[in-house]
């Protein structure tokens, strides 16, 4: 069993999160909650339950269930990893047509291609990213709105972290 507690305090906002994970046979169960779960009394806001189960065609499958009582939304998220370079994921909001299917391919460990189909909008989105040392360059294109976005981010232990983007 693993447990973690994280907290952050700034002048204008403080947050907290807790995670509990344990193995039950070949299934890994995880429960996470944020401070929204306990502020103003117990609630389901900020509560996430997930199950990792190898066994769908002998490939790892991760299922996540998220319920937001304030928004009255329930989301089911699933990811099937075929190998380190290929995975398929789906996100569905129950009771709506909001469902996204995404394929992710990592080429050479540094370049990622991600086509995504949104069933609710009947539209494709595409993303490509390239990692160069501590930098990541990413381009996304949304076919429905015809928006092209470029992003550059850096996560360096020595020089700090930043993100720049433009549309």
TrEMBL record:
Residue ranges that the Swiss-Prot or TrEMBL entry lists as coiled coil: none
Bilayer disposition of the protein: Multi-pass membrane protein
Gene Ontology MF terms: porin activity; voltage-gated monoatomic cation channel activity
The keyword Transport belongs to this UniProt entry's keyword annotation: yes
InterPro entries: OEP24
UniProt keyword annotations, A-Z: Chloroplast, Ion transport, Membrane, Plastid, Plastid outer membrane, Porin, Transmembrane, Transmembrane beta strand, Transport
GO biological process annotation, one example: regulation of monoatomic ion transmembrane transport
Record's keyword annotation contains Ion transport: yes
Cellular compartments per GO CC: chloroplast outer membrane; etioplast membrane; pore complex
Subcellular location(s) of the protein: Plastid, Chloroplast outer membrane; Plastid, Etioplast membrane
Function in brief: High-conductance voltage-dependent solute channel with a slight selectivity for cations transporting triosephosphates, dicarboxylic acids, ATP, inorganic phosphate (Pi), sugars, and positively or negatively charged amino acids.
Quaternary state and interactors: Homooligomers form large rather nonselective pores in plastidial outer membranes.
Protein name according to UniProt: Uncharacterized protein
